[in-house]
């Protein structure tokens, strides 16, 4: 409600001027003020939380003022001024008033909260409060136009006596005390003025509570960050015992928090040179105050399994500069370590796979050269044929390596076009046949085959890798079958053999990088563990899928799909 000077008329009659007021009345009011102050101080010392404090405050102000309704409104960051505590107001009135916002609403509460009380109207006190002891009379005194600009909710709900007293901290208004009563002349000016003075202390208390709440919230925020961080955190004392740990630490090591706290940290390392032995050195460096970064160590989980970790430690010192505890960040690098190990093994395998054919080629060519006179033309031909075949298989291996490096660098580009799958299958089978005459090759193709939309060289590579495996992993004389089944949008191409087959557990690993099963097989055959990985990536690059069906002892069939050409 905003009221111009011209229209001012306030229903205000000080209560002490009413009959019965006088020395006795004044003594009673001094006593009431004293009582209020004492109880407010007591309340402050007894309340642990702001809400508890405000609940009590509302009851005390109600007792002091004698008004049937008292509420405390606080201004929030969005400009809302909800009641954080109230008594006596009807539910309906509360619902309407509680949604008040200083950004969108106009009313006396908003004026008081915003400090817009400098109009000189008698309805505003010098201390910045609003006071009316007869809201109906007040409204009758203002023009319809001005009345329309106010919400008049207090009046609509029959509250004749209304006071809105600001609560401040260092001049900033934090909220207000709302007094209301249905009778007229319930609130003497002196009471409002006294509440204004008390409002400063209340504001001080509110500020303290708010600061404590903000601190608690920020502590909780950091505690949550610590607790829910994806990395494991430990705090270890200079005595070597764990003082704190977060949830990720318990998950990483498989111990409960209770089992971790108070445990010697060195107990958690594996009994290996890269475990306990190395951790001891790291611990000494921490005691000497050195900052430790990314040390790779081996820890031991509760279930006995080892985990590789990367450890970074910062020392925390006391006032005398002594190292008292550490803040350690532990990152699980087990997967990376496994991959590193696989890569190392892979380099070893590839070097071996490259060297063997090269040895054959060099040997054959050298013999053909140095023994030329002694060798028959057939023998020389055979030597050169052997060298040519080994050179071909070498070229396939290098081709796979090159594809893999393209894939790793995200530089695998397909040259897809409509191609005849029959032609590609036949030429690839012929090529593999030349390498291994000891197997029976059977090609089953439907009479009519639609063209594929694929990269011809890549399709050749997929087929070659699968056929080469079928040759490598099935006995001599066995049948190797290539077949094709057209589906609506794609072709299914299959390569089956009569080899030893693959167990379901091994099937799951087959298409992963550098996976070989041969180490665990009694008659393990050489290879780099590259062929199926390259097949999978090439098939997927075409939008297809590759899988295996196999039973140990009953051969294997590898299937893959390729998109049909609709051009
Ligand atoms: P490589 O043959 O060079 O070892 P691959 O990626 O082509 O690498 O194959 C991975 C592993 O899968 C092989 O080491 C082999 O143990 C197994 N494997 C592949 N094809 C067959 C097959 N047709 N029958 C049985 N095992 C196979």
Topology:
Layout: H1 23-46, H2 50-65, E1 69-74, E2 83-87, H3 91-98, H4 108-114, E3 130-132, H5 135-140, H6 144-148, H7 153-156, E4 161-169, E5 172-181, H8 189-228, E6 232-237, E7 242-245, H9 247-253, H10 257-260, H11 273-287, E8 292-300, E9 306-317, E10 323-332, H12 334-370, H13 377-408, E11 417-419, H14 421-435, E12 440-444, E13 452-454, H15 456-472, E14 479-486, E15 490-496, H16 504-509, H17 531-541, E16 546-550, E17 556-563
Parallel strand pairs: 12-14
Antiparallel strand pairs: 1-2, 1-5, 3-4, 4-5, 6-7, 6-10, 8-9, 9-10, 11-13, 14-15, 15-17, 16-17
Helix pairs in contact: 1-2, 1-8, 12-13, 13-17, 14-15, 15-17
The chain binds adenosine-5'-diphosphate (ADP).
Attribute tags:
567 residues; alpha+beta; elongated; disordered N terminus; binds adenosine-5'-diphosphate
Description of the molecule:
- The chain has 567 residues and is α+β, with helices and mostly antiparallel strands.
- It is built from 17 helices and 17 strands.
- It has helices spanning 23-46, 50-65, 91-98, 108-114, 135-140, 144-148, 153-156, 189-228, 247-253, 257-260, 273-287, 334-370, 377-408, 421-435, 456-472, 504-509, 531-541; strands at residues 69-74, 83-87, 130-132, 161-169, 172-181, 232-237, 242-245, 292-300, 306-317, 323-332, 417-419, 440-444, 452-454, 479-486, 490-496, 546-550, 556-563.
- The strands form four sheets. A five-stranded antiparallel β-sheet has the order 2-1-5-4-3, sandwiched between helices. Strands 7-6-10-9-8 form a five-stranded antiparallel β-sheet, with helices on both faces.
- A hairpin with a 5-residue loop joins strand 8 and strand 9 (306-317).
């Amino acid at each position: 409600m905003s009221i111009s000077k011209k229209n001012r008329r306030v229903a205000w009659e000080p209560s002490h001027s009413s009959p019965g007021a006088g020395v006795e009345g004044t003594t009673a009011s001094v006593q009431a003020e004293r009582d209020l102050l004492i109880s407010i101080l007591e309340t402050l010392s007894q309340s642990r939380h702001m809400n508890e404090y405000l609940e009590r405050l509302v009851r005390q102000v109600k007792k002091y003022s004698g008004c049937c309704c008292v509420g405390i409104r606080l201004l929030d960051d969005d400009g809302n001024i909800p009641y954080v505590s109230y008594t006596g107001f009807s539910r309906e009135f509360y619902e309407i008033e509680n949604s008040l916002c200083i950004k969108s609403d106009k009313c006396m509460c908003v004026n008081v909260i915003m400090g817009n009380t400098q109009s000189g109207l008698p309805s505003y006190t010098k201390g910045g409060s609003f006071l009316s002891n007869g809201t109906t009379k007040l409204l009758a005194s203002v023009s319809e136009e001005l009345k329309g600009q106010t919400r008049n909710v207090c009046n609509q709900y029959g509250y004749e006596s209304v006071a809105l007293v600001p609560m401040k901290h260092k001049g900033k208004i934090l909220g207000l005390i709302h007094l209301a009563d249905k009778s007229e002349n319930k609130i003497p000016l002196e009471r409002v003025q006294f509440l204004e003075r008390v409002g400063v202390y209340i504001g001080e208390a509110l500020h303290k509570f708010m600061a404590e709440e903000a601190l608690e919230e920020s502590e909780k925020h950091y505690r949550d960050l610590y607790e829910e961080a994806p990395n494991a955190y430990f705090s270890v004392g200079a005595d070597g015992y764990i003082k704190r740990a977060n949830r990720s630490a318990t998950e990483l090591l498989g111990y409960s928090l209770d089992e971790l706290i108070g445990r010697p940290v060195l107990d958690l390392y594996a009994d290996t040179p890269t475990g306990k032995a190395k951790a001891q050195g790291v611990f000494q460096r921490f005691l000497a105050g050195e900052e430790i970064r990314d040390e790779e160590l081996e820890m031991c989980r509760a279930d006995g399994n080892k985990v590789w970790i990367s450890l970074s430690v910062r020392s925390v010192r006391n006032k005398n500069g002594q190292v008292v505890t550490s803040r350690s960040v532990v990152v699980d690098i087990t997967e990376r370590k496994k991959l590193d190990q696989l890569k190392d093994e892979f380099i070893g395998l590839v070097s071996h796979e490259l060297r063997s054919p090269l040895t054959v080629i060099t040997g054959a060519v050298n013999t053909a050269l140095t023994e030329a006179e002694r060798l028959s033309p057939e023998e020389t031909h055979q030597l050169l044929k052997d060298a040519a075949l080994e050179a071909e298989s070498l070229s396939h291996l290098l081709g796979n390596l090159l594809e893999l490096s393209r894939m790793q660098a995200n530089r695998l580009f397909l040259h897809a076009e409509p191609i005849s799958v029959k032609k590609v299958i036949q030429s690839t089978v012929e090529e593999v046949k030349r390498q291994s005459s000891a197997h029976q090759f059977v090609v089953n193709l439907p009479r009519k085959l639609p063209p594929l939309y694929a990269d011809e060289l890549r399709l050749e590579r997929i087929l070659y890798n699968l056929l080469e495996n079928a040759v490598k992993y099935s006995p001599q004389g066995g049948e190797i079958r290539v077949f094709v089944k057209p589906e609506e949008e794609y072709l299914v191409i299959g390569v089956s053999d009569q080899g030893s087959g693959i167990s379901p557990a091994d099937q799951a690993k087959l298409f992963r990088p550098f996976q070989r099963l041969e180490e665990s097989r009694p008659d393990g055959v050489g290879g780099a563990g590259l062929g199926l990985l390259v097949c999978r990536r090439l098939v997927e690059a075409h939008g297809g899928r590759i899988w295996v069906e196999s039973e140990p002892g009953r051969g294997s069939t590898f299937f893959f799909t390729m998109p049909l050409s609709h051009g």
